[in-house]
Every structure is written in C-alpha cells, then in structure tokens.
Amino acid sequence: MANLRDIKRRIRSVSSTKQITHTMEMVSTTKIMRALTRAMEAAPYKNAMTSMLANVSAASTGENVPLLYDPEKIETALVIVVASDRGLAGGFNVQVERAAAKRLAEFERQGIKTEVITAGKKPTEFFLARKRKPILSFEGISADPTLVEANQISSYLMDAFTSHHLDRVEMFYQHAKSRVEQTLTHEVLLPVAPKNLRLPNDPRSKEASSSVHDQSSVDANQVLDFEFEPSAREVLGFLIPAYIRTVIYHALIDSAAAEHGARRRAMQAATENATEIIQTLSRQYNRIRQSSITTELNEIVGGAAALEEM
C-alpha cells in the first residue's frame, strides 16, 4: 500500500506541474502574436534604413567617415548578446550565449581585447559566472524592450568607435522567423562597411498581416545614383547613428518575439511529457492496485476454505 501512496503522490505532483506548464504555454501563445506583430511592423523601417545606408555609403567613396572606416588591424572588439531575463525556453538562451562566447574566444586567440554588452538577465549571469563583467547590462526588459535601451547602447558604441576605443562591434540574438521557428542571428554593426550592409534574416512567414510582410521585402544591396546636398559625408553623420540605433532596437524586439515562441514550444513539450508520465503512472497504479485486490481476494478465499475444513 505504501507503493500505491507513493505513486498517487507523484501523480498529483506531476499534475500540478502540468497545470503550470500549460498555463505558461497559454500565456506565451497570447503574447507571441503581439510581439511578433511589433517586430514585423518595425522590419520595413530597418530594411529601408539599411538600403538607404548602403546607397549613401556607396556614394561616399573616398570621403573620411569615421564610422565607415574598417581598420586593417583590430585591437578591440565588442560583442552584444541579446537573450532573455527568464529561463524555461528550451535552448533559447544557451544558443546565443555559446555562440557569443565562441566568437569572443576567437577574438582573444587573435590577441584582440574584447568587451561584452548583455541584454537579459540570463546572458549577464552567464558571463559573470565566467569572470567577465559586461560593460553595459540590461535586465527586466527582454519581454518588452524600449528605445531607451537601444539609445544607451548605440550612444556608447558611437563614442567608443569614433574615439578608436573599439574597432569592431558584432551582435548575437534569436530571430523570430515565425511563431514556432527561431534562428540564431549574427550581425556586424561596426564598422558600417558596404559588405556588412545586408538583411541577415529571411522574410517572416505571414503571421500577422500580409501588408506588413509585403513591405519587409527590401533589397539592401541595391545601389542607386543620388546627388547629395551638402555632402554624402554629412548625410552619413546623421544616418549612421540612426541606423545603429534602429538595428539594435529591432534586435531587442525581435528577440522578445523569439523568446515567447521558444517558451511556448518548450512549455508545450513539457505539458505533453507530463501527460505521458501521468498516463504511465496511472497504468502502473492500476496494475498494482488490481494485483493488491487480487491478493486480498485470494487471502479471503483461502481463509474461508480453511474455516470450512475445521
């Protein structure tokens, strides 16, 4: 009977866990459409900004623009890691953290000094555990980021790059390709070289509105012929900071949408696993209970037969 009590207790425990995971799955399902729509609505602006910068930078050949300068020797590099404040999202955080750590290790093997900026509690904890303190860290904003964080990051990057404190800036985050699919994305932010001005992600599937999806198909590599007044250099002076801020902000909201999708999928799998465990335990409980009842019946029958023989 003690075995039956243990199984019954475990069934109650797993059922309680199943209710939690199912609730989290429903919450993520509710939030993911809003977050995905937000990212999709911002995508056309980012893509248009990328296309415009590609055209202007191509027209500014020969002009001295610090943010376009690609140094022959990289002495200091910075990696921005965008992930989540919370876990329970499968490999969402781990993939970004490992990719960023691998890239930092590659820089260090080349004798390059490295710095890290983290957006999310999990990547901050990841690098602090490895004795690497981020230059900037943001927590509590992964599910609903704002332009404030993007402005702070971009301001630091602009000052550090123009003062030659940084020679290269790269960023890692999860791209929400759809409600169920996330892809690890790596972007080079600085220097703003024409070869780096590309759209790193494929267009999303139609998850929100077709009009937003249609607007997002912009060719960033298409170069047109423009005339600039007063000069392409001055235009770039305004355009590049706006571009960096836009790319960072879009990565933050894109990662937020990916986080909800990854958590929904992880909680759905956990709920399905809990259901299977409950079914297995229930079958085991019924078999033991049936065996116990059969044993008791045999004992009763045996006792009655013994009394008749007396």
Task: Give an overview in words.
There is one protein chain. With 310 residues, the chain is of the alpha/beta class. Helix content is 59%, strand content 11%. It has a five-stranded mixed sheet, sandwiched between helices.
As a percent range, the share of strand residues is 5-15%
* First and last CA, distance: 32 Å
Strand order of the largest sheet: 3-2-1-4-5
Arithmetic mean of pLDDT: 79
| H/I helix tally | 6
Which structural class should the secondary elements be placed in? alpha/beta
Please mark out the parts with pLDDT under 50 across 5 or more consecutive residues, or reply none.
208-224
Biggest sheet record: 5 strands, mixed
Number of DSSP strand runs: 5
Supply Rg: 28 Å
Helix content: 55-70%
Give the overall silhouette: elongated
Compressed to H and E, one letter per element, the order equals HEHEHEHEEHH
Topology:
Elements: H1 2-59, E1 76-82, H2 92-109, E2 113-119, H3 121-128, E3 136-138, H4 147-162, E4 168-176, E5 182-190, H5 210-215, H6 232-309
Parallel strand pairs: 1-2, 1-4, 2-3
Antiparallel strand pairs: 4-5
Helix pairs in contact: 1-6, 2-3, 4-6
